[in-house]
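thought: fold this chain, then report.
action: predict
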Amino acid sequence: MEKDLVYIKEEYEKLINLDANSDGADRRRRGFDFERLLNRLFNLEQLEPRTGYRPLGVLSENKIVD
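observation:
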């Protein structure tokens, strides 16, 4: 568990250090990465998280792809 928490902290620190001049795609990717990080933390704490809702396709480079 300790190793998982260290990993989560390191990944979080990478996410909060996103360049202020990042484009929308990078910010969106950071949001998805943050969602996965929260999911991992919640699973670690046995909270049974659900992942975010995605419409019928997957968002890829500002486009919905089936």
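thought: worth noting. The first strand starts at residue 58 and ends at 60.
final: tokens above.
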